[in-house]
Design goal:
Blueprint (H helix, E strand, L loop, with lengths): L1 E5 L2 E5 L3 H4 L1 H18 L9 H15 L15 H17 L3 E9 L6 E7 L7 E7 L5 H19 L2 H16 L7 E7 L12 H4 L14
Helix pairs in contact: 2-4, 5-6
Amino acid sequence: MATYKIGGRTQAKSFAVKRYGEDQARALAIAARENFMRLNNDSFLAYEELAQHVADIHFGNLLQPQCSDHIAPLVILDAHTIDFRMHALDRWFDSLRPRRVNVTVANGCVPSALLCVSVSDCGWPARSKQKKVYLGVRTLAQGLEKAWSFLQTELTDMHDARCWQEFEAKYRDEFFSYEPARGFKVRYRYYDAEYALRCKPPASLAGLLPDFEVPASAGA
């Protein structure tokens, strides 16, 4: 969570580790903190050795002494500009939210009669699709083939063809080894092909966050 207090007001923005992953959540909180400070033309000092060390790592550009010859003129931002930049920051953070894949296959109350298939992107609001595959007129193997075809269509539609290819490569063998007693459940983060490109601030924020980049290693 990034927090900033000035003039009796507190600004805060949180980033869930479950949603972004630990490294990304930390990086996004640092970016939000920097943005709060820049919007308020603020800087800070550290008075303890360890605090100074941590501050140098994460906020070194805000701690460096500035030569008077290179100090930019004071800029007072109007409410419209501040609102525009905050919305731009929110849109960027939203674009960095990893996609999710959640697939469940289980038998119905009568294991030999029904397969219940569910796929979701775990979004807010979530996109989800369900399908019932009746086994009375087909074998389990045939039912699994039908469920597999359903998953291909829905994962491609929810995300993209690359998502389906990744899912197929990782889970095909496990899926077709399905046993009613244990079922099938998979949930993971999916990083699309352009995710790494979004780790740098968009043009509308580049001036506020120079040389800043969110770690993309989690999606590699």
